[in-house]
Amino acid sequence: MGTTRLDQQDTIYLTNYFKEQIKKGNIRKISPETAALIFISYLSHLNLLSHFKECEIQEEKYIKNFINILLNGIKGGHQNAK
Description:
Tet_transcr_reg_TetR-rel_C_sf; flat; mainly alpha; 63% helix
């Protein structure tokens, strides 16, 4: 499965964003490349789901919840999703 040039640019941009956030101490030390791929994979999956008529999704709600889980994890003690 190949990656388009746009996907590569997005991955580089997000990887650099996560690296910057790690340097600033805003997020813990993780693999910025993996975080970028996880983010892009999720958005790609939502895009795929949106093409199925039977599958009505509330993109904004799912994206907000995904970002919350990505940034805060699923371990106990964090604010619940709304």
